[in-house]
Amino acid sequence: MNRARDRQRRLLTNRRLVWLMLAALVLGTLVLFVADNFVLIEIRLLVTRVRMRLAWALIAAFLLGGVSVLVLGRLLRRWRDSDTASG
Amino acid sequence: MTDMDPHLRSITPTDTANTRLPMWTTRLAAAARILLVAIASVVISGSLYLLAYMVMNPEGAEEWTVGRRPNQYYTAIDHDALTFSTAAYGTIFGVAHNSGGSIEATLEALINGADVIEIDVVELDGALYSAHTPPLPFLGQRWFRGPRLDRVWAASVGAHAVMLDLKDSSSHFVRLVGDFLESRPSTRQVIVSSRSPWVLQLLRVRAPEAILLLSVPHDAALRAMQNNEPLLETIDGITVRHTALDADHAAWLSDQGLLVFAWTVEDLERVNELMRLGVDGITSDNLAIVSLFAGETGSERALRRTPVPEGLDE
After folding, report:
1. With an 8 Å Cβ cutoff, are B47 and A53 in contact?
2. What residues in A contact B7, CB-CB < 8 Å?
3. Average pLDDT over residues B196-200
4. For chains A and B, what is the number of CB pairs under 8 angstroms?
5. pLDDT tens digits, residue range B298-310?
6. Range of A33's domain?
7. Of A5, A28, A40, which is closest to B47 when you measure between CB atoms?
8. Could you say which of A17, A24, A38 has the minimum Cβ distance to residue B61?
9. CA of A56 vs chain B CAs: smallest distance (Å)
10. Are B156 and B198 in contact (CB under 8 A)?
11. pLDDT, tens digit (0-9, with 9 covering 90-100), for A24-35
């Protein structure tokens, strides 16, 4: 009995439970957001035009922005570190 | 105690602390954790399924979220396939399918000479809107972006007639439609279609000037209608799926003096067949077909009306 309970606790730690609930919250909110912005729009990209759902466009812009900040941040930090080391 | 798993240590500082708690508290906590896991799992799997559905079937998802856009298009017809004169095509009422789904589609249909603007009518939060499918309860009201019926009504003022295709049959909805029609001037030719005989019988009293069409989706419904005497006295005609209409049915409908509208016809060959069967109106998504029925001067044929039958009280 105690062994089974211990096994359950080991599998389902508080941290894992929090992550699971956080994932549910994020995914649930994402579905509501996508459904709310599922209108079809035309995006003009200087030389071309793309028809897509507003929600996908917003998510793509969000992800692109996030990745750009992450990559640029790392590059800048590396550049600054190498500058400090050589200077 | 010393060789205890670090995970366990993080949630249960000591075994002795646990033993001090009553058994029912421990069980309650475990049950709560299992419940949380179950809820989270359902939300996660449901959300992943819905997101996949939205990616794989965007048109279907559009219908139950922001509302389906009219499927209107223009594909030029083969003029060699025209078997009737322009004047003969002009006697048919051209109905622009679901063109009331947006103001832009309504105006585009009118520019292309549509005789009739079809508006699918639903109720949303006590008001009438144009939508092919009623929005989902609660959240659907927030997501839906279709136009209000009064806006489409105003935009379609240049059409010979407006066709309201009722997508609901509740008494509250019928009352709203009756109020709407009563509050509008009776100068416009209004066609109302519904699959429910009961709705049409109520509207015969509320909107006596309207042309009432029974919407017939299949052959079985057509045969059921043929045996329904009170219904035949109420309606002015039918609007039928074109595949359900054959020569025998068309002859019977003609004998009864009923108007016949056929939906949704996308090829000219079938248009010619239906004209030979004697239909009065044809619904199409293709604006080239719709504009064919405008003829040179537009349709001049008036829709017939049936007087209110006696003995029908509100």
Report:
1. no
2. 9-10, 13
3. 94
4. 75
5. 545 566 544 444 4
6. 2-86
7. A28
8. A38
9. 9
10. no
11. 999 999 999 999
Q: Is the separation of the CB atoms in B130 and B101 below 8 Å?
A: yes
Radius of gyration of chain A (CA): 22
CA distance B166 to B75: 28
Instruction: Give the amino acid at B245.
Output: L
CB contact under 8 A, A38 and B41: no
Nearest CA in chain B to A5: B30
Which residues does A contribute to its contact with B (CB < 8 Å)? 5-6, 8-10, 12-15, 17, 20-21, 23-25, 27-28, 30-32, 34-36, 38-40, 53
- Are residues B114 and B50 in contact, defined by beta-carbon separation less than 8 angstroms? no
Q: Would you state the pLDDT for residue B1?
A: 42
Average pLDDT along chain B: 87
More confident residue, B66 or A1: B66
Identify the three-state secondary structure at position B262.
strand
3-class DSSP state for residue B75?
coil
Q: How many angstroms separate the CA atoms of B110 and B162, rounded?
A: 11
What does the pLDDT read at residue B305? Answer: 44
Task: Give the amino acid at A49.
Answer: R
Q: Give the start-to-end residue ranges of the domains of chain B.
A: 6-56, 79-292
- Counting the structural domains of chain A, the total is 1
Q: Which of B269, B211, B218 is nearest to B235 (CA)?
A: B211
Question: How far is the alpha carbon of B164 from chain A, nearest alpha carbon, in Å?
Answer: 24
Per-residue pLDDT, averaged over B285-313, amounts to 65
Q: Which string of DSSP letters, residue by residue, matches A11-28? A: HS-HHHHHHHHHHHHHHH
Rounded CA gap, A55 and B289, in Å?
A: 35
Nearest to B200 by CA among B273, B147, B258, B250: B258
Best residue of B9, B10, B27, B37 to probe chain A, by most A CBs closer than 10 Å:
B37
Are B44 and A24 an interchain contact pair (Cβ–Cβ within 8 Å)? Answer: yes
Say if pTM beats, i.e. exceeds, 0.90.
no
DSSP summary character for residue B227: T
CATH of domain B79-292: 3.20.20.190
